[in-house]
Each structure stands twice: as C-alpha cells, then as structure tokens.
Write a structure and sequence with these properties.
This protein is mainly α. The chain contains 6 helices and no strands.
Amino acid sequence: MARADTLTVLVRGEMAVARILRNLLAVVLGFVVGGVVNMAIIMTLPLLIPPPAGVDVTNAESLAAAMHLFEPKHFVAPFLAHALGAFVGAFVAYVIAATRKAWLAYLIGVLSLCGGIAASFMIPAPAWFVALDLIVAYIPMAWLATVLGRRVVKAQGGG
C-alpha cells in the first residue's frame, strides 16, 4: 500500500511540474508571438500609410523630432500593432496554458501595457493617442483574447 501511495505522489508531482512548465511556455510564447506581431505591423503598415517625408519610424529620436508633422492617420499603425500584438499574445497564452488560462492571458496584456507605458515616455505622442493606446490596446484586447480563447478551447473539446 505504501508503494502505491508513493507512486501516486510522484505522478501527481510530475503532472504539477508539467502544468507549470506548460504555463511558463504559454507566457513565453505569448509574449514572443505578440512581440513579433507588433513589430511586423510596425514595419509593414508604414508602407500603406507613409510617414511624413524624412522621418525614420525605426528611430525614436527621429519620431520625437518630427511628431508635429504626424496626422491622426499616422497613428493607425502603432495602435493596431499594440492592440493586435497584445491580442495575439494573450490568445496564444490562453490556448497553450494548462491552467489559469485567463490569468496568463491577462498577464500578457499587463506586460504589453508596461511596454506601451514605456513607449509613451520614449516617444512623445499626442495625449489623445497615448490615452487611447493605454486604455484600449492592451487589457481590453487581452479580455477579447480570453473570450475567443474560451470558444476555441471549448470547440476543441477542452475545458
């Protein structure tokens, strides 16, 4: 009987470690994939909506110096990059996570929000954009990712 109890404890311990590792993988992959989506949009959308002449969108100093030349249309790319990066990252974390799916998706949203706050200090954008970006692009997108993630996981026969 003692041997069976020991095996049960070992199996439960291994399962707990596997869940922890899977959750860690969910956060790392969610963060990386979200960052890739963010950068892909930042690098490609300016091809559709070109920045003002002479502005290097890959250089924070160039952006800061030319911010007065930007029109509202120029803020579409960064907003979409931030919102879709947070959404996709949170969705990936939700779908991969073994437990605490919503919590881990929101963690990606919070990490993305921290990046957005840092960016708002590095690149002086108009107040309306900073407010819109920080209020709408991160935590609400993580929430939306949990809604979609719940449907996807349920459709796949998961919890």
